[in-house]
Amino acid sequence: MPESDAYTIRPAQSSDAAFLVELHELPHAREYFAVPQVEQVERRIEGSDTEHWIVLKDDECVGMVGFGEVTPWLFEIRIMLSKRQGRGVGSFAFEATLERIFEHHRAHRAYLEVHARNTIARRLYERCGFTQEGIFRHGARNPETGAFEDLCAYGMLEDEYRSRRG
After folding, report:
1. Buried b (16+ CB within 10 A) or exposed e, 122-143
2. Cβ neighbours for 18, distance < 8 A, ≥ 6 positions apart
3. Separation CA 57–CA 165 (nearest Å)
4. For residue 158, which phi and psi values (nearest 5 degrees)?
5. Domains (range + CATH), the chain
6. Where would I find the H helices in the chain?
7. Tens digits of per-residue pLDDT, 81-135?
8. Residue 58 burial (CB < 10 Å; 0-12/13-18/19+)?
9. Can you give the three-state secondary structure of 50-67, one letter per residue?
10. Residue 166 to residue 160: CA distance in whole angstroms
């Protein structure tokens, strides 16, 4: 996985569970994700088909990303959370994830779903080369209010990833 002057990334460990719960508790995360229990996160890290990665600035945990194989050629980016919005954590995590999906796993396609009202994340995905492919009407439920919300489907093909890298 890549490193930058500001950030590094490493696989999540069970000992990161409390930090991952803290990320889910942040106001900008609670809008989109239910807050799990520490034990649930530990089980997901240890026994899941999702790869969980921790983003660090120096030695401080500042973000995470989770993605997984649907089939050997298809990967889903399932979650990305940052402690500090607008400081490049998400951009770094997303680029590292794409590199892992397309270079390490040799996937043909990656996709994700995002709440339509999450304009910050949608801008990031579009800036990173993802294409909005559709909308799932009432495809998600707001974890705080219970209201149904639209989801936007985004995708990227391997050749699109490679053309971005020049």
Report:
1. bebbeebbbeeeeeeeebbeee
2. 38
3. 24
4. -55, -45
5. 8-165 (3.40.630.30)
6. 17-25, 27-30, 38-47, 89-99, 119-127, 158-165
7. 999 888 899 999 999 999 999 999 999 999 999 999 999 999 999 999 999 999 9
8. exposed
9. EEEEEEEECCEEEEEEEE
10. 10
Q: What is the residue type of 21?
A: V
**Predicted TM-score of the model (pTM):** 0.91
Tokens at 98, concatenated: 């794409």
φ, ψ for residue 123, nearest 5 deg: -60, -40
AA letter at 57: K
Residue 163 CB contacts under 8 Å (≥ 6 apart), including other chains? none
